[in-house]
């Protein structure tokens, strides 16, 4: 009986490994393909000759991006934006989720407040009024235009409040009996115990800030202030074939969409890709129980 | 313990304060009076006026050191020569971003003194009463040269900018006489011993031979390259407009019905003939069966890889073909260009546009509209016959071509409505005679083509195929002379039904055209489509267009 | 009175904590919501939101009277619902399977690999999909050919197109979606597993009786938030992959609004459609919220 089960278990482990390995393989292949394109010559790429290994190896697509003086400046704007944006947003998420995680007996208006926030992910006034608000606050061309409008990430707040709720009540009660304030309880107990959730929401915030480009374009009136992703949008010459005039024929020759688009992915994504493996260390099992036993 | 809570509180407060503080700080900066530049010019007519605009940069614009959009040789030259100081409300990094930002500027009623807008925006701004009637300002301030320059096409383009006899914008003009041609592999013609295409039948025979004999040796040959958007707009390459034209059919155009009225070309019986022919080609395997999902870039792979040797497109197609045709400094694919043939004895007419899709408009709030017209005058002068001094407008302070794209800094640009490239360029390149060249465009093209001729840059093959002795533009004089072109007879602003219904009409059309082409339905479905088209607002639209036509004939 | 003061005394720090969040949301979400009025207006920029003429329901009429509107709604809901269901099921399964891996570094490697596709754009992926799914040379059809199956034109066939959209979208996003569930797994009390094991429950039973219930709050939350997307079928993806032969099964609300936007530069129409989508989301989200509350006395948020 016992050996039987452990055999089944071992079989499961092997199959599980194979399944996950194949799925990971399916996710990796296109990435390798795109990486190969980014290192191939424009001609080979546009002829569709590249599969998983560069054809006519060249770093031209990367030189094109890195060779521009704007690159470093845009990179710096992005770094600022991610750090400032994530700090502000996480701080807000942590303190906003805490009161909302209380139940209605402890905090009577919580449900009202919860809906007050959720309502904003369902309804939006659209681009133009938001732009006007940002403009009237004088934030155009400042980093605040990229940081503040989305600072309250309601999705993250809700996610975090659900994690807060799962924390054992005894912890909070004992802390309150000791005379600690809400702020102390939040800081000393909630925050350290919800590390996995904070890592998750933190990652979402960082990825969100790093990847967004549209707001950079709308709110920045000088290309010098563009964050990286907005700048990279301009590296690829997008051409509406309907509006090509004969004078622009020369541009057509320079156009090598595929390699630069492929390179853009890696230039843009690499810094944010390495964040995840790093954050994985915060996914610690049993973190909550450990503290209760103590 | 309490400290922590206080810190949080303070952070929250600071956050709120920063928002308000930021707001104030920037506003104060904005309010600061402009620092007036000292007047150093001598020959100035009036005092310097200031006009604001919005600009698009591009990734090839490289500033000389110390220069920027705020201060540069071109702006300085305008200020010195015509007394107009140019400022920018904002700058976008490229044209796509420019268009997005412009939408925001218009929607939030925050427009500069003058700016470049598209036809729909021109109409919108006119209706909203946000832009100025330019009739008088233009009449008073435009020089004779300017007026002549913008009327070279007989006044069509100016008319499209005129609403109720009021000139609402300056057309950002260009040459409308851009024809479609057939590009085909002449090395394959030789290999298979086939004649050049003179009639539609010739062309179909060639396509079939390219399919059955597979001169590219790929094992997967097709006759003709087609992409997923073959009818919409002036699909530059891999389109089928010119194919329709060969059958005297046209894409979404208003043509004369012979009784003094206008009809839409999409529902005419000639289209059915063309679709029938396309269906036959599809059945024979002459068209890539997957064309419907491939965009131009994707379908072009088949051209680069020797699967296909025939493609329709505008004169600049060689700039695309060069990616497959020239390899390691050698021409590996030989292409020729031919005028589109006709299915019968009457010659085919090429469908062309009006040569204008953008306009420069002046805000109602602008204090110095005359300054904008002066910019226009000066631009035309410096383009048509620049003095040595005026080369600064094109190349910046060093006045020599450095590939820095300084021309982009001219805030108001109009192009020639007619060119004689077709007469001049092929002759000049054939005889290597640069003395007959007239315009700047011709000189640039000549230089590029000569690089191919003398072998210093084989990549310039494309310019040779455009401008050379047997190049695309060499066909223009004959087409022009025989008037083998057709322009849209309707050039007004979209009618109400058009605004609401054009989308569904084009969607239905594309659906049925594609299904017939791909042999999913019989060609007789076309007749059902015509009935549906009329019912879905087509008839209403036709009525409105004819009312416009009666009033504007 | 006394009760109220006591309540206030007890609760004021909680209110205080919400002040910065509420302030920002008021400024950047609620104030701009005035823009919803555009749905009922012929918006004229220089008259502004409060001066533009109202045109009643004309924008909504334009939408309702659109000849293909039924088809478009069906396509949108059909594709979106499948994406919601699959987008819930797949990440949860993968999270559980990843959780079963013994070696930490293997787990982390797989975790990272499946997360990569999220960072690719549909513009790039569309080119790859066209190649992979090509009936003449695509690898998928070649594999199918080994089993004697005739080539299928996945992207050009109305029967297949919606499923291709669902599968490719799930493929792109499931790795990113897994992260939330992995975080949820860390919150499960390990002693529950020990107890179950003593009761003689195998791994499968443990998954059923410990893991899934432990993840349930997050699963319900994710479902509730996703169901709000019932009218969002994925514009970027479909716009890059659809074509006239598959309009019948591929045309969704967003692609339609996009095409309309080219014909007429009216903000009203897009705003009207956006409002309609918001209302539908609102209905679905509140429904699942109140059902959870009534049935299980559980507040999702």
UniProtKB/TrEMBL annotation, chain A:
<feature type="transmembrane region" description="Helical">
    <location>
        <begin position="185"/>
        <end position="207"/>
    </location>
</feature>
<feature type="transmembrane region" description="Helical">
    <location>
        <begin position="82"/>
        <end position="100"/>
    </location>
</feature>
<feature type="transmembrane region" description="Helical">
    <location>
        <begin position="262"/>
        <end position="279"/>
    </location>
</feature>
<feature type="domain" description="ABC transmembrane type-1">
    <location>
        <begin position="75"/>
        <end position="276"/>
    </location>
</feature>
<comment type="similarity">
    <text>Belongs to the binding-protein-dependent transport system permease family.</text>
</comment>
<keyword id="KW-1003">Cell membrane</keyword>
<keyword id="KW-1133">Transmembrane helix</keyword>
<feature type="transmembrane region" description="Helical">
    <location>
        <begin position="12"/>
        <end position="36"/>
    </location>
</feature>
<dbReference type="GO" id="GO:0055085">
    <property type="term" value="P:transmembrane transport"/>
</dbReference>
<dbReference type="Pfam" id="PF00528">
    <property type="entry name" value="BPD_transp_1"/>
</dbReference>
<protein>
    <submittedName>
        <fullName>ABC transporter permease</fullName>
    </submittedName>
</protein>
<dbReference type="InterPro" id="IPR000515">
    <property type="entry name" value="MetI-like"/>
</dbReference>
<feature type="transmembrane region" description="Helical">
    <location>
        <begin position="112"/>
        <end position="131"/>
    </location>
</feature>
<feature type="transmembrane region" description="Helical">
    <location>
        <begin position="143"/>
        <end position="164"/>
    </location>
</feature>
<keyword id="KW-0812">Transmembrane</keyword>
<dbReference type="GO" id="GO:0005886">
    <property type="term" value="C:plasma membrane"/>
</dbReference>
<keyword id="KW-0813">Transport</keyword>
<dbReference type="InterPro" id="IPR035906">
    <property type="entry name" value="MetI-like_sf"/>
</dbReference>
<keyword id="KW-0472">Membrane</keyword>
From TrEMBL, chain B:
<keyword id="KW-0564">Palmitate</keyword>
<dbReference type="Pfam" id="PF13416">
    <property type="entry name" value="SBP_bac_8"/>
</dbReference>
<protein>
    <submittedName>
        <fullName>ABC transporter substrate-binding protein</fullName>
    </submittedName>
</protein>
<keyword id="KW-1003">Cell membrane</keyword>
<keyword id="KW-0449">Lipoprotein</keyword>
<dbReference type="InterPro" id="IPR006059">
    <property type="entry name" value="SBP"/>
</dbReference>
<dbReference type="InterPro" id="IPR050490">
    <property type="entry name" value="Bact_solute-bd_prot1"/>
</dbReference>
<keyword id="KW-0732">Signal</keyword>
<feature type="signal peptide">
    <location>
        <begin position="1"/>
        <end position="23"/>
    </location>
</feature>
<keyword id="KW-0472">Membrane</keyword>
């Amino acid at each position: 009986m016992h050996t039987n089960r452990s055999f089944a278990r071992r079989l499961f482990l092997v199959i599980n490994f194979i399944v996950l390995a194949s799925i990971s393989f399916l996710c990796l292949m296109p990435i390798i393909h795109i990486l190969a394109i980014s290192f191939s010559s424009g001609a080979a790429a546009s002829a569709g000759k590249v599969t998983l290994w560069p054809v006519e190896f060249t770093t031209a697509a990367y030189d094109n991006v890195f060779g521009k003086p704007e690159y470093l400046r845009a990179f710096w704007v992005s770094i600022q934006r991610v750090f400032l944006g994530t700090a502000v947003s996480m701080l807000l998420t942590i303190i906003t989720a805490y009161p909302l995680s209380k139940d209605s007996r402890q905090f009577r208006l919580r449900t009202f407040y919860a809906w007050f926030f959720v309502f904003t992910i369902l309804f939006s006034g659209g681009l133009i009024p938001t732009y006007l608000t940002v403009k009237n606050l004088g934030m155009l061309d400042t980093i605040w235009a990229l940081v503040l409008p989305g600072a309250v990430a309601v999705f993250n707040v809700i996610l975090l409040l659900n994690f807060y709720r799962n924390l054992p009540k005894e912890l909070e009660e004992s802390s309150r009996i000791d005379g600690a304030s809400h702020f102390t309880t939040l800081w000393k107990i909630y925050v350290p115990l919800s590390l996995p959730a904070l890592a998750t929401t933190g990652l979402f915030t960082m990825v969100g800030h790093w990847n967004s480009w549209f707001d950079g374009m709308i709110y920045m009136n000088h290309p010098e202030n563009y964050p990286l992703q907005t700048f990279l949008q301009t590296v690829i010459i997008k051409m509406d074939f309907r509006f090509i005039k004969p004078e622009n024929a020369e541009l057509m020759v320079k156009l090598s969409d595929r390699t630069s688009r492929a390179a853009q992915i890696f230039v843009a994504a690499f810094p944010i890709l390495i964040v995840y493996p790093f954050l994985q260390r915060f996914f610690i099992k049993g973190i909550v129980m450990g503290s209760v036993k103590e | 313990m309490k400290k922590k809570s206080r810190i949080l509180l303070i952070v929250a407060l600071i956050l709120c304060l920063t928002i308000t503080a930021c707001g104030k700080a920037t506003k104060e900066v904005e309010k600061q009076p402009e620092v007036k530049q000292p007047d150093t010019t001598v020959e100035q007519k009036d005092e310097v006026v200031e006009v604001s605009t919005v600009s698009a940069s591009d990734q090839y614009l490289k500033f000389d050191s110390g220069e920027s959009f705020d201060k540069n040789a071109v702006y300085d030259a305008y200020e010195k020569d015509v007394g107009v100081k140019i400022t920018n409300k904002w700058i976008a990094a490229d044209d796509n971003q420019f268009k997005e930002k412009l939408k925001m500027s218009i929607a939030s009623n925050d427009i500069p003194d003058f700016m470049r807008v598209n036809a729909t925006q021109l109409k919108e701004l006119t209706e909203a009463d946000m832009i100025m009637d330019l009739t008088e300002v233009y009449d008073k301030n435009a020089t004779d040269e300017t007026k002549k320059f913008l009327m070279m096409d007989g006044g069509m383009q100016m008319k499209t900018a005129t609403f109720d006899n009021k000139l609402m914008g300056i057309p950002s003009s260009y040459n409308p006489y851009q024809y479609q041609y057939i590009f085909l592999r002449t090395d394959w013609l030789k290999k298979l011993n086939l004649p050049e295409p003179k009639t539609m039948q010739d062309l179909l025979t060639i396509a079939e031979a390219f399919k059955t004999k597979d001169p590219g040796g790929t094992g997967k040959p097709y006759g003709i390259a087609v992409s997923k958007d073959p009818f919409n707009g002036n699909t530059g390459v891999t389109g089928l407009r010119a194919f329709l034209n060969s059958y005297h059919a046209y894409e979404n155009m208003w043509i004369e019905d012979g009784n003094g009225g206008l009809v839409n070309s999409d529902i005419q019986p000639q289209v059915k003939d063309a679709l029938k022919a396309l269906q036959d080609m599809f059945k024979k395997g002459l068209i890539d069966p997957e064309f419907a999902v491939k965009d131009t870039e994707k379908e072009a792979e088949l051209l680069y890889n020797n699967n296909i040797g025939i493609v329709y497109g505008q004169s600049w197609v060689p700039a695309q073909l060069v990616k497959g045709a020239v390899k390691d400094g050698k021409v590996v694919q030989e292409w020729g260009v031919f005028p589109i043939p006709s299915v019968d004895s009457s010659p085919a007419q090429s469908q062309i546009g009006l040569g204008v899709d953008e306009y420069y408009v002046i805000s109602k709030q602008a204090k110095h509209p005359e300054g904008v017209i002066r910019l226009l005058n000066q631009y035309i002068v410096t383009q048509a016959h620049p003095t040595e001094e005026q080369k600064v407008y094109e190349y910046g302070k060093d006045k020599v071509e450095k590939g820095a794209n300084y021309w982009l800094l001219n805030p108001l640009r109009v192009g020639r409505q007619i060119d004689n490239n077709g007469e001049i360029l092929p002759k000049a390149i054939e005889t290597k005679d640069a003395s007959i060249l007239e315009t700047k465009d011709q000189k640039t093209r000549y230089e590029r083509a000569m690089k191919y001729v003398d072998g210093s840059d084989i990549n310039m093959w494309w310019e040779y195929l455009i401008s050379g002795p047997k190049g695309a533009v060499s066909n223009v004089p004959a087409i022009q002379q025989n008037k083998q072109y057709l322009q849209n007879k309707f050039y007004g602003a979209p009618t109400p039904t058009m605004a609401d219904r054009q989308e569904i009409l084009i969607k239905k059309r594309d659906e049925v055209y594609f299904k017939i082409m791909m042999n999913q339905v019989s060609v007789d479905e076309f007749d059902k489509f015509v009935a549906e088209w009329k019912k879905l607002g087509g008839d209403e639209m036709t009525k409105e267009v004819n009312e416009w036509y009666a009033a504007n004939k | 009175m006394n009760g109220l003061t006591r309540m206030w005394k007890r609760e004021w720090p909680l209110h205080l904590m919400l002040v910065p969040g509420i302030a920002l949301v008021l400024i950047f979400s609620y104030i701009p919501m005035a823009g919803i009025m555009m749905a009922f207006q012929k918006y004229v920029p220089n008259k502004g939101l409060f001066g533009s003429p109202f045109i009643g329901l004309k924008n909504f009429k334009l939408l309702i009277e659109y000849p293909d509107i039924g088809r478009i709604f069906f396509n949108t809901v059909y594709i979106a619902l499948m994406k919601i269901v699959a987008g819930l099921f797949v990440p949860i399964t993968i999270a559980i399977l990843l959780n079963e891996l013994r070696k930490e570094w293997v787990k982390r490697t797989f975790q990272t690999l499946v997360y990569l596709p999220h960072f690719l754009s549909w513009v790039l992926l569309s080119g790859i999909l066209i190649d992979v799914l090509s009936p003449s040379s695509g690898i998928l059809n070649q594999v199918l050919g080994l089993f004697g199956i005739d080539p299928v034109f996945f992207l050009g066939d109305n029967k297949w197109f919606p499923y291709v959209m669902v599968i490719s979208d799930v493929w792109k996003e499931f790795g990113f979606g897994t992260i939330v569930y992995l975080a949820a797994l860390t919150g499960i009390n390990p002693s529950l597993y020990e107890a179950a094991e003593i009761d003689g429950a195998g791994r499968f039973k443990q998954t059923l009786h410990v893991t899934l219930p432990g993840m349930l709050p997050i699963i319900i939350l994710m479902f509730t938030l996703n169901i709000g997307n019932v009218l969002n079928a994925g514009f970027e993806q479909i716009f890059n992959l659809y074509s006239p032969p598959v309009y019948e099964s591929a045309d969704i609300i967003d692609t339609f609004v996009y095409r309309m936007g080219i014909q007429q530069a009216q903000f009203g129409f897009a705003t009207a459609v956006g409002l309609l989508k918001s209302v539908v989301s609102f209905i679905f989200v509140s429904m699942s919220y109140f059902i959870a509350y009534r049935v299980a006395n559980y507040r999702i948020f």
